Amino acid sequence: MSAGNALTRSAPWRGTAWLMGKLGISGRTLVIAVPMLWLGVFFLAPFFVLGRISLAEALIARPPYTPLFERGPDGSLQIIASLENYRFLMTDALYRNAYLSSIRVALVSTIFALLIGYPIAYYIARAPEPKRSILLLMVILPFWTSFLLRVYAWMGFLRSNGVINNTLISLGIIDAPLRMMQTDFAVYIGIVYTYLPFMILPLYANLTKLDSALLEAASDLGASPFVTFFTVTLPLSLPGIVAGSMLVFIPAIGEYVIPALLGGPDTLMIGRVLWDEFFSSRDWPVASAVAIVMLVLVVAPIMWLQSIQNRREEG
Amino acid sequence: MRGWFLPLAVAFGFIFLYAPIVSLVVFSFNESRLVTVWGGFSTRWYGELLRDRQILGSAWISLQVAFASATLATVIGTLGAFVLTRFSSFTGRLLLTGMITAPLVMPEVITGLSLLLLFVSMELTLGWPAGRGLTTIIIAHTTFCAAFVAVIAQSRLRSMDESLEEAARDLGAGPVRVFFDVTLPVIAPALVAGWLLAFTLSLDDLVIASFVSGPGASTLPMVIFSKVRLGVSPDINALATIIIGFVLVAVLIAGWLMRRALRKGG
Amino acid sequence: MSQPAIAADTKPWRREGATPFISVRGVTKQFGDFTAVADVDLEIYKSELFCLLGESGCGKSTLLRMLAGFEQATSGTITIDGEDMARVPPDRRPTNMMFQSYALFPHMTVEKNVAYGLLREGLKKSVAYERAAEMLRMVKLEKLARRRPDQLSGGQRQRVALARALVKRPKLLLLDEPLGALDKKLREETQFELIKIQETLGVTFIVVTHDQDEAMTLATRIGVMKDGKIEQIGEPREIYETPNSRFVADFIGSVNLFEGKVDAVAPDMMRIETYELGPVLLPPQAGLTLGQQVWGAVRPERFAISRSKPENTPNTWQGVVEEMGYIGHMSQYRIRLSNGVLIRASQSNRLRDEDPISWDEKVWISVQPSAFRVLTR
């Protein structure tokens, strides 16, 4: 048999191969280089720019920050960098409170999402087939419509003359409208509502893998359904709970849109603080410093936790 | 978890999911400007929506951005996933792994701000990109969508029987040929799913686009946000209804196609 | 030469100085700290059907993958038909492989799967499809040419995989557990079909399997592997009758092993003092010294079981039937000797209306001296 390789016979391939050979690039290197370069330039490099600008001072100019290098009076290059912005973040209680309340809001929302999502995931996982697929589709469906419009839907729902208040008043349950918009409560609802599918899907994936023979074995050994749930189902679904909670907690903590639309002026979240610092105060260096602190205090621990979780799953 | 509790909890969950959407749709047909008080059936807000040049223009921009960035993200995400699953060791492997997964956990405000600062510095030093607009939004969306595509492609590439690729090699195909003849057709459904996800994520994004866009390049979410911020407005209800109808039709068609494919497959 | 001359033509490995078609010399493969294949030497001749037999993880698949070119040997050389394979990628090797999972391209029809390799050689479409059709006729699948792999049964898929690998007329066909995914009945039928195809085409086959029956039926020669090393190479009969170690004796078929020391050596007889059976008489074997530790191996079917004491045989013991299993064509026995030692024995059920020996019967068992195989490791 002639060791045939069509690659060397067809003209376009031969041309490409020849060119790459001339340049001393192997196909392998080329394939690696494309994603590496794109992400290096547009994902990694921006953080260095971010770090550098967080050390500058705000100016009313274009660009609105001081340069990193400046020629001194004697013509020598001087590096201008100060930790002033970071000191400002540490002394001003606003920022500390914003960080803490972001974590609190994300945590509370995650717990509610778990409490609402778990029964749904459990029910779908135990449902017989056409029903199961239809319910699953119904969980995913809202996700495909616009996120912004789903948050907007709650504005119409929670307003003082919104659907909930109007219904309750016409039923005679309350006399005056409840104040729900522009509260932390509205923010919790918004986050839970938006990210509920992210909680349900990993839980569902985990619960369908649960062998129903285990539940039968538990009841055969004398456990009531209640006891079976807490001693068998719940411990075995722990990986699903962790995965789902991460998927809700992570986007919730840096959320901007939901607190901006549903929260009140006193709903402090770090994403909102950063946004306002940038768009309202036009202070790019402080916004950068907020972002850097957020990276170190929020993103880094999450990535660390995730890498631990991944390693545990593989091992 | 038996008896009345579970069905009740599930019913509550689904009401929670759908009640706001249903009310959104219902009030889009409301005659009254007051979004939550019924004033009779009307389609006037649909008419107003279709005359709104700002909304139509931004929708067109959003579609262009979503199409371009979903396509670019699929190419980059697939290459990244392929490299990570098929090349066992190369310099920078750890770096690439990090750069591909990190965008998934990165708060949008940070991604948006850092990319804007990059674009500004690049413009100052390299003269490109000149100003901000469609190009910068596409670059930003491609970058964060590529991560999502990569996750989907990676899990498909991992679960794929690698002996398929070896069989093609064994039968005389070179590495490039194997990729286009075997790998790509086998993972194609996952890539379609990845493209669709990237497309929706891009259409949906407000925060990143707000940072990196410039004058004259407002995406649909940016326009909606600026309107909604001031309070509810009925033409937004009409827009939401159109989007929901569109998604519903798309899902029904996809479901019908899938069922037909299943039946054909036997 | 002690072997008859005619055998040397069909069994080149018996002839001194014959040129091997494939030779593996000192090949080692390491994955990090783990040594999958350790310093293996192997010579395979043209038109052989060679089986690599061993448990999972013994290195047989790694050896096969090195022959195909999917793994690079850490050290050692592989030559096929005189050509060194070290720098030859899989797509340029004169080998083809049939994968354990069959690896049929799910997005191509049967016909396209089979023609794929021919098209990669640069053959014209019409020629490639003509040859693919011819090959499909040979494996009796011509009617299913337009189907997709997921519309075929397991047995049909197996034949497509075989056709796809054979259509390129490779010098060497590598088969990784070719019958592993089939059920027992189909496996037995397919075994003989595989031999027939191999003999018709005259292609050299190397088969990897963990199934000893499969290896015994298919192979011209078997290489038994353990922990990355080849324990023994030989014809099926040699492997069964004259295993060279306790591992091989135990791995192929079942065996009774008795540990002991060489006690006395005479020109026509040798005696071993065993712990389990006491003194055992057997024909002398070269290379043994007095007092050396050895193991006597006896296959269960070599024991004779009788109700009365047998005449004219030196190795006779008395015991009680503790367990008995009726298989149909034969019966298996576990016989407890008076000193507590358990013997595995079996008897074929030749007569229909025999009064079978059964549980708790007192019986005599005996074995001919020549039925013992003495092992030194």
TrEMBL record, chain A:
Would you say which domain of life the source belongs to? Bacteria
Please list every transmembrane segment annotated in the UniProt record, as residue ranges: 30-49, 98-122, 134-155, 185-205, 225-249, 256-275, 287-305
Looking up InterPro entries in the UniProt record yields:
MetI-like (IPR000515), MetI-like_sf (IPR035906)
User: Domain named ABC transmembrane type-1: which ranges?
Assistant: 99-305
What is the membrane topology here? Answer: Multi-pass membrane protein
Please give the chief subcellular localization of this protein: membrane
Localization per record:
Cell membrane
Q: Does the keyword Iron apply?
A: no
Endpoints of the signal sequence: none
Q: Which GO terms describe its biological process?
A: transmembrane transport
Similarity field: Belongs to the binding-protein-dependent transport system permease family. CysTW subfamily.
Note the PANTHER family from the entry: INNER MEMBRANE ABC TRANSPORTER PERMEASE PROTEIN YDCU-RELATED-RELATED (PTHR42929), PUTRESCINE TRANSPORT SYSTEM PERMEASE PROTEIN POTH (PTHR42929:SF3)
Identification of the protein by name: Putrescine ABC transporter permease PotH
**The organism of origin for this protein:** Roseinatronobacter bogoriensis subsp. barguzinensis
Automatic annotation (TrEMBL), chain B:
Q: How does it sit in the membrane?
A: Multi-pass membrane protein
Alphabetically sorted, this entry's keywords are: Cell membrane, Membrane, Transmembrane, Transmembrane helix, Transport
InterPro entries this protein is in? Bact_Polyamine_Transport, MetI-like, MetI-like_sf
Q: Which GO terms describe its biological process?
A: transmembrane transport
Q: Where in the cell is it found?
A: Cell membrane
Q: Which residues form the ABC transmembrane type-1 domain?
A: 59-254
What name appears for this protein in its UniProt entry?
Answer: Putrescine ABC transporter permease PotI
Read off the CDD domains from this record. TM_PBP2 (cd06261)
Principal localisation? membrane
Q: Name one GO cellular component term.
A: plasma membrane
Q: Which family does it belong to?
A: Belongs to the binding-protein-dependent transport system permease family. CysTW subfamily.
What sections of the protein cross the membrane?
A: 5-29, 59-82, 94-122, 134-157, 178-200, 206-226, 238-258
UniProtKB/TrEMBL annotation, chain C:
Its Gene Ontology biological processes?
Answer: putrescine transport
Where would I find the ABC transporter domain in this sequence?
Answer: 22-252
Enumerate the GO terms in the molecular function aspect. Answer: ABC-type polyamine transporter activity; ATP binding; ATP hydrolysis activity
EC number(s) per entry: 7.6.2.11
Which keywords are on file for this protein? ATP-binding, Cell inner membrane, Cell membrane, Membrane, Nucleotide-binding, Translocase, Transport
Return the GO cellular component terms, semicolon-separated: ATP-binding cassette (ABC) transporter complex
Q: Name one Pfam family in it.
A: ABC_tran
InterPro entries listed in its UniProt record: AAA+_ATPase (IPR003593), ABC_SmlMolc_Importer (IPR050093), ABC_transporter-like_ATP-bd (IPR003439), ABC_transporter-like_CS (IPR017871), Mo/tungstate-bd_C_term_dom (IPR008995), P-loop_NTPase (IPR027417), PotA-like (IPR005893), Transp-assoc_OB_typ2 (IPR013611)
Question: Which top EC class applies here?
Answer: translocase
Which reaction does this enzyme catalyse, per its entry?
ATP + H2O + polyamine-[polyamine-binding protein]Side 1 = ADP + phosphate + polyamineSide 2 + [polyamine-binding protein]Side 1
Free-text function comment from the UniProt entry:
Part of the ABC transporter complex PotABCD involved in spermidine/putrescine import. Responsible for energy coupling to the transport system.
User: What subunit structure does UniProt give?
Assistant: The complex is composed of two ATP-binding proteins (PotA), two transmembrane proteins (PotB and PotC) and a solute-binding protein (PotD).
The record's family statement is: Belongs to the ABC transporter superfamily. Spermidine/putrescine importer (TC 3.A.1.11.1) family.
Indicate what this protein is called per its UniProt record: Spermidine/putrescine import ATP-binding protein PotA
Q: Read off the lineage from the record.
A: Bacteria, Pseudomonadati, Pseudomonadota, Alphaproteobacteria, Rhodobacterales
